[in-house]
């Protein structure tokens, strides 16, 4: 196996509010681990305002060997988007409410184990996708889940419990919306409960919307949940949590390399867990193996 370049100079982007977990102790742990392995470490704490600009400035000023996102999927996307197309790998110390991408990548969810990646790892390339110029590394949605994500981001409670409570409240009154989807393989026109544009497999909650998706195959999947009777919801959820969504008559997945999604009813959208405004016509393109990521050494 090719010898990995040793990391020397690291930037850690720490989201102090992610997952409702106090990060002070962790910051000390990061500093200690770096000192033990003679690594130079810089910490940047996100503020929620113009973080992308601030981090970009730091990356341009200093020659970092890797940038670690310390937080949830939003923090991972923020950092990952800045590293797409560069030689600088993205590291992840998962500390959010859900940590979907890190789970799909097999990154340890235990902080101490994840910190081992600073000195023992491999670097691999993964695909990213682009929605009207906005990068997406994990999963983006139109429809029900996007609405829940929007309400979650507007609220002041974090964590999986807050997310589940909002989902339940919205589910009771949610009506499917109309979409037209054209891809290089198949087309779709009709109502859907939600449309997921998936580079990866599962949401942070572990619900697998795209169970067989591969992060470096040069393809993405459009996962549709079509209108279903309210009574079918528990079985649908069960299928998602048991990697068996394709067994449902209410779902379909389109694997493709490019797509245009017409969001006819102007339904809300999120990209990797952050609400986004994309207009009615959404062009989705694939950037194969465009992001380097730091992963555990395979067993
Ligand atoms: N200092 C801060 N104060 C308030 N909000 C912040 C701050 N730093 C970042 N944010 C916000 O945190 C959100 C990203 O959080 P992140 O996704 O990392 O964690 P999470 O939501 O707890 O976890 P997950 O996405 O895995 O469910 C962004 O909306 C960002 O604007």
TrEMBL record:
Any one annotated GO CC term: plasma membrane
Keywords: ATP-binding, Kinase, Nucleotide-binding, Transferase
DAGKc domain segment(s): 5-135
Any one GO molecular function term: kinase activity
SMART domains: DAGKc (SM00046)
Superkingdom assignment: Bacteria
Record-linked Gene3D superfamilies: 2.60.200.40, Probable inorganic polyphosphate/atp-NAD kinase, domain 1
Protein name: Diacylglycerol kinase family enzyme
């Amino acid at each position: 196996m090719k010898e990995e370049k040793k990391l020397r100079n690291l930037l850690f982007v720490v989201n102090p509010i992610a997952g409702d977990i106090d990060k002070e102790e962790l910051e000390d742990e990061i500093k200690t681990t770096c000192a033990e392995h003679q690594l130079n470490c810089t910490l940047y704490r996100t503020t929620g305002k113009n973080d992308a600009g601030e981090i970009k400035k730091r990356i341009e000023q200093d020659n970092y060997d890797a940038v670690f996102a310390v937080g949830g999927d939003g923090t991972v996307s923020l950092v990952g988007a800045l590293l797409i197309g560069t030689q600088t790998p993205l590291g992840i110390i998962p500390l959010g409410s859900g940590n979907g991408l890190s789970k799909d990548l097999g990154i340890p969810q235990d902080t101490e184990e994840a910190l081992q990646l600073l000195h023992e790892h491999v670097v691999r390339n993964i695909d990213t996708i682009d929605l009207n110029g906005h990068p997406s590394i994990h999963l983006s949605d139109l429809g029900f889940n996007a609405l829940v994500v929007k309400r979650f981001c507007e609220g002041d409670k974090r964590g999986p419990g807050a997310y589940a409570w909002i989902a339940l409240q919205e589910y009771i009154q949610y009506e499917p919306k109309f979409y037209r989807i054209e891809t290089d393989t198949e087309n779709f026109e009709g109502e859907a409960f939600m449309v997921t544009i998936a580079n990866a497999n599962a949401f942070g909650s572990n619900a697998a919307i795209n169970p067989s998706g591969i992060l470096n195959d040069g393809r993405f999947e459009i996962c549709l949940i079509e209108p279903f009777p309210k009574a079918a919801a528990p079985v649908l959820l069960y299928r998602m949590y048991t990697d068996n969504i394709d067994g449902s008559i209410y779902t379909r997945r389109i694997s493709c390399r490019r797509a245009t999604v017409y969001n006819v009813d102007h339904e809300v959208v999120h990209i990797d867990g952050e609400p986004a405004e994309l207009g009615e016509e959404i062009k989705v393109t694939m950037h194969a193996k465009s992001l380097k990521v730091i992963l555990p050494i395979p067993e």
